[in-house]
Amino acid sequence: MSSSEADLIIAALRPVAEGLAATLGRSCEVVVHDFRRPEGSVAVIAGDLTGRTVGGAMSQIGMDLLRQGDAAPDRLNYVTRTPSGRMLKSSTVVLRTSDGTAFGAFCVNLDITALRQVHELVGDLVGVGDLAAVAAGAAVPTTTFSNDVDDVVDAAVDGLQLAQGKQWADLDRAERIALFARLEATGVFAMRRAVPRVAARLGISRASAYAYLSDVRKQAQAEPAGRTSRKSHTSLGEGGSV
Length: 242
Prior knowledge:
The chain is an alpha+beta fold. Helix content is about 45%, strand content about 15%. The protein has helices spanning about 5-25, 60-70, 115-125, 130-135, 150-165, 175-185, 195-200, 205-220; strands at about 30-35, 40-45, 75-80, 85-95, 100-110. A hairpin with a 5-residue loop joins β3 and β4. The longest helix has 22 residues, at about 5-25. It is globular, with a radius of gyration of 19 Å. The N and C termini lie close together (about 10 Å). About 30% of the residues are buried.
């Protein structure tokens, strides 16, 4: 990948991000991520919906794109909820150099909280109380946005433990390996210092955390061949750089 080409693309997108945010107003935030700096990927930010600044961390969604590497697809018109309850409609376009290497993402976030409240009010007024629920379909996932990547890692660990309905001490070995497998699938371990952070969050030793992650990766390598191989940043392992 040409670093100079990636840098030029990011520089060219800065006025685009600023112009788009200015046009759409206070309900819009535009972010350009640089995956070559995964712990502080925010290279450009215009608007303020998530409280991040330049040098801030990517969300769980960004980690998943980083995990997928060059195979990462664009994600358009998805809805997430911030921990404060703000509802965001977002689109993320993967940035690539001329040789197809994924190096970042261009993200647009729109605050639709007020629009959703109006939608619910209209539903009440016309006597269709569950209008919003019908339109919403599945529950909206909460996404952590932060300037500190440790916050995002902590949220991923806590979310998986909550989904399992058990604390670490109550999990058997298979469940513990499954939790690490799900963390690996989110792209968390593409971050530097992720394994020590996960260990601290779970209350286990770093050696135990590395051992569980090693078991997960050995199982993945032992899976039947036939899956289409793809270039992925996770091949760098925990502590690698992009």
